[in-house]
Amino acid sequence: MKKIVLSMAAAALTAGSLSAGAITLYQDKDTGAIYTKPGPNRVELGDFISAKEVYIQNETIKSKMAKALKGTTVKSKVKTLKFSGKHYLGFTSINYDDNRDSINRFETRRNYLQVKAYWNKKDYARITLDTFQQYKDTGSKDDGSWLVRLKYAYIYLDNILPYTGVEFGQAHRPWIDWEEHHGWWYRSINKVFVEDKYMGAHMTNSADIGFNLKTKTEYFSSEVGLFNGEGYHDASTEENQQLSFEWRLTANLLGTGKEKVHMDDEYADISFFGQVNPEYKNNVKDFKWYGIHGVYNRPLFLVAAQYVKSDYEGDGAYEGNGWSVNGEFRPVKKWSILGRYDNWNVENDDPAVKDYTRKGYIAGVAYKYNKNVKFIGNITHVDNRDPAYFAKYNHYNKYNQYMFTAEVNW
């Protein structure tokens, strides 16, 4: 209401000012001479105003309006602040293969709030906050509560080496973010293979405290970093904590290594990635894993596949090998059909402990509503043959999960 009143006042003020400064001009019929006063043989041309006066009056009015509409002032020590957000909103129905009751629930799976503070065009500081729901039955006083977790907090300095910048702080680890923006575009419905714990390898997560050197050239890109190794979910508690060396080396076969790619770009990449951690958890030595990944994308389709191998002198759930394939077909503008299959084989050195397999598939359809919103419907089937889970519950963790998701970016 305040803006409407001020707009009307500005219009009235403008009209009054112009009317007050107007000059009536007259033209002689025979000679064409212009006069400011009426006289014999003169015809009135109308009211006119100086262009200079109009400009001065408009600038004065703009200044007054800006002061009248002035709200909260945002101040910063940098030139530019860039705000953005991401939300994974949805509904999930889970049907188990045993006698457990089905689960039906609406969800806000993730809500990210991000700020980047640029002091020049390429160097910046970033902070990203992530809300998540504490799992029930954990024994925590926060069972079921929504909590806020720090996801990223780092500075990025560009070109500290040729073609190379660095993230320092709580930064991206080399692999997961890259795969989510090149090979598996649907983090809103499922994590990537090396992170997923129900049907995948479940060996790492997306952020950790340390540094990440990011190199970008046309046909080669890489990320090489040193981190605490526990990931942003856990703290490093060992007195002699050993750091984790992690990497991604990518051949960008069609170029695009310098650029951020999109679904409608054509690109083909082959990557070698992994992690070596001399001391992981509870003084267990030598946790290492590595993998190879290939992806080819065109506007019509995407195909991607990977193989991962791990070695761990501890809990067998972290040691094994497996593979994953996923694809996407885009037959009509804004519509996509997607699918994925994961298979992870857990290997145990102790013959008394049984080896087992985690596997599953995802099938779904996506619709791009606009540049900010995408809708996804999918089914996820999980078949987890963990014997420890069977010993506790007398059944395996096997189920079908039906999901509807609104992925929102702003």
Give a description of the structure.
- This protein has 410 residues and is mainly β.
- It folds into 2 domains: 2-68, no CATH class; 80-409, Porin (Beta Barrel).
- 12% of the residues lie in helices and 50% in strands.
- The chain has 4 helices and 19 strands.
- It has helices at 2-20, 51-68, 176-180, 387-393, and strands spanning 23-28, 34-35, 42-48, 80-96, 103-118, 124-133, 146-161, 164-172, 207-216, 220-227, 244-252, 267-279, 285-297, 301-311, 320-329, 335-346, 356-368, 373-384, 397-409.
- A hairpin with a 5-residue loop joins β15 (320-329) and β16.
- The longest helix is centred in the first third of the chain and has 19 residues, at 2-20.
- It starts with a helix and ends with a strand.
Short descriptors:
single chain, 410 residues, mainly beta, Porin, 16-stranded antiparallel β-barrel, 19 strands, 12% helix, 50% strand, elongated, disordered N terminus
CATH fold title of the largest domain: Porin
Cα(first) to Cα(last) distance is 27 Å
Question: What is the SS-derived class?
Answer: mainly beta
Quote the beta fraction.
over 45%
- Radius of gyration (CA) equals 31 Å
CATH superfamily of the largest domain: Porin
Describe the protein's topology.
Blueprint lengths: L1 H19 L2 E6 L5 E2 L6 E7 L2 H18 L11 E17 L6 E16 L5 E10 L12 E16 L2 E9 L3 H5 L26 E10 L3 E8 L16 E9 L14 E13 L5 E13 L3 E11 L8 E10 L5 E12 L9 E13 L4 E12 L2 H7 L3 E13 L1
Antiparallel strand pairs: 1-2, 1-3, 4-5, 4-19, 5-6, 6-7, 7-8, 8-9, 9-10, 10-11, 11-12, 12-13, 13-14, 14-15, 15-16, 16-17, 17-18, 18-19
